[in-house]
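Data availability (excerpt). The following record was deposited with the supplementary files.
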Amino acid sequence: MCIRDSLPVAMRMNYWLHLFTGTTWQEFQAAGGRVTGFREHNWKRASGIRPGDIFLCYLVGVKRWVGLLEVTGNRYRDDSPVWGEEVFPVRFPVQPLVILPAEHGIPMSDFRGKLTFYTSDGSTSKWSGWVRSSPTKYSQVDGDTIAEAIRLAEKNPVTRPVDPRQLTRSSNL
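Predicted structure:
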């Protein structure tokens, strides 16, 4: 049993999808990796995110899981520059728990049959909706599965080539 399972429900953290492009992932890290953000239209959706929650970081285009960020404070608005292509003004202070380069990220295909939304017979059309918009709250079981795999990838990295064109994909696609 996980320690989290023995905590009262009010004290359990939640997992949230956080989408990055290769460029925004690099910009986040270059800015110090302590603040992350979402588009303005996500202000209300982000209201459920609390300190202690975990962002599961996914690289679009590359289709890999690359990080875990612990939320350390409440949401706020800020227009100061962090990312080149967009402002992402709905901000959260975070503590990076795991930061992987794209080459060490875990391909989504590795989760076939291991997630509630990606069954063993699942095609891209069945799971892709779950990695299309962030922040999106994930179930405890899916979050635990992804987070554990990211932690293992940090301890035992596997290098997989990445198409450079996928890393430069625009966040506006």
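Summary of structural features: Strands lie at 15-20, 35-38, 54-59, 64-71, 76-77, 90-99, 106-107, 136-138.
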